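Help! Submission page says 'invalid entity' but I think these are all valid:
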Amino acid sequence: MANLLNIKINGKAYQVESGTTILDACKQNGIRIPTLCYLKDINAIGACRVCVCEVKGVRTLVAACVYPIEREGTEIVTNSEKVIKSRKTTLELMLSNHNNECNSCVRSTSCELQSLAHEYHCDEHRFGGIKNTFEEDVTPYLVRDNSKCILCRRCVAVCKSLQHVHVIGPNHRGFKTSIGCAYENSLNDVACVACGQCITVCPTGALREKDDIDKVISAINDPTKHVVVGTAPSVRVAIGEEFGYPIGTNVEGKMVTALKMLGFNKVFDVDFTADLTIMEEGTEFLGRLTNGGVLPMITSCSPGWINYIEQYYPEYLAHLSSCKSPQQMFGAVVKSYYAEKNGIDPKDIVVVSCMPCTAKKMELNKPYQENKDGIKDVDIVLTTRELARLIKRAGVLFNCLKDDTYDSLLGEGSTAGLIFGATGGVMEAALRTLKEITEGKELEKIDFEAVRGTDGVKRATVNVNGIDVKVAVAHGIENAHTIMEEIKNGKADYHFIEVMCCPGGCVCGGGQPIQPADVRNSIDLKAARAKAIYDTDKKAKLRKSHENVEVQELYKSYLGEPNGHKSHELLHTKYTNRKK
Amino acid sequence: MSKICQVEFKETAEQAKKLQEIIENYKHVEGAAMPVLQQAQDIYGYLPEEVQKRIAEGLGVSEEFIYGVATFYSQFTMNPRGQYNFSVCLGTACYVKGSGDIMAKLKDTLKINEGECTPDGIASIQATRCIGCCGLAPVMVVNSDVYGKLTVDDVPKIVDKYLKK
């Protein structure tokens, strides 16, 4: 039984469980303590000293995020003059070595340091003196600017613990401390998986996506170019956050309207190629299952995951499905099927894809992601955040828009494609189709609850036409690593594995809207955004990939059959051993 | 400040064997990074990138973690001492007498920073605190040769003396 303690916070009596941190005890009772380095379940190191409070009888101020209440009668003060002054001085010291280019910073108005500086009225720069200077580390997917870093180490914690790659960490000491890679290497030269999770937890503008908005504006304004855009499943359930909608609101209709207003020639749905992926990947899996192919087969939709396996477990590349990711299939189909149907030279088409993901920016330039003439499948990737900025910059009043629908030919998507956005979604979509096609009768139960939810690794056995198919679903590289070790040690007897690089799957991808720690500490973004996807799925009529009429038409009039010759040429890829 | 070493990594079979033994001994010990790095530095005289890589792999931790520890403690160095180690006193008396300018000139002449070694392994620069001969300030010591009452113009001449040996 929990041991309840009688305590006082700011003179008022409360009861809390022994061991509760001051931060949590206050939150439970409606008192907010500011934080910068703390991130629930990810980073609790008491480093930034912004959450300091007074505890009666304790000589110094204590960090609320890591101070456990274990004594009956503990008296805490969270807002005394001493506390406020200390927090303010800490903030001023951070600002004294900060690149205060707030006007042009991409995180202006969503920066946690800026908002606290404002709250604590840090208007005079009291502490002048030397500032550290740093060179930006620029990669095709991410920019690291240490001049805006406050050394909170949230990025280090996600890189090390959630994503198990640990390519960044604190180097040097004291004033010279900086977050970086071993031997001062660029992220380009270490085994980074490009997931961008570090960006989504950064409180300031020290980490940001590589901005490609200008490329899109140029393409749209180039009369010789035919610009086609596609949106990933999880963008629609997150982009609303950038326009003030509650977390977990599906704004597909408004997003489509906005894209049409921006001047794209066609607005398509990548859910379409998610469905196509199921047709290809499902067929590939059945082939492997019945013909003694390499098992377990592992999904290949998540480019961060591909980056991981190519660099950390290259000996298992044969386990990957040879299917391109839905993004790359989208580009490939636009520049072949769509181009042919409309008599457009593929060279004149610019494919823009809007993704929840930073690794997608890297994926488009990888080998084997182009057609036989060397034309890249996809030309430009925008993250959800960039798309929101593009919409704002274009003067589109998102919240006032009416709903519109995707253009046809590649605009139809089943909600099996939509659930790709959440962990377990690809597996569920595959199972819906595999079972129904092989068993030749309509599914009695379409929901596969066992593969849903936010558990790190989900395991299930599903009978598909008389065969017990063992499946596993992992999200976040830490969990993928668990599965890979099981395979390596011969402890796994799975047939089919879904891996998503980011915790929660694409809904919490590295390109998704950034929520401050205050929000992340009280709402599970993974569950809230996934709920929007599953709610939409529940109400939808078209819930199975193989029933997508536009996909059926694509096979009938162009590709032939799944895994056929043409499919292999356009929709499948190869992987590279990139062990460093 | 970068601690990256330009000197080509060389080792003897004996050094490699010793390092391997140390790593094996500490493989399952928690908090092994510090003692392993210390002993590795004893073997090689510094911590080359290659050695850090082997330690990380051997202990099953990331290279960044090892590098982070190695750069945190000032007793760890990632640069070998050159055949000639130029150490400039930056103690109070020498500093007042202009050893800062001596250091600047030395860095400029050798084209390396404090704590670094030239890529050919010949010369390295070190800053020292008072060496106890303030009457000679500003002072520079090259291996065991002491040079006192220096001016900036003396620096290239002294450097030449060793490099042209």
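Support: the input was valid. A stray whitespace character was the problem, and the output above is from the cleaned input. The two ends of chain B are 31 Å apart (CA to CA).
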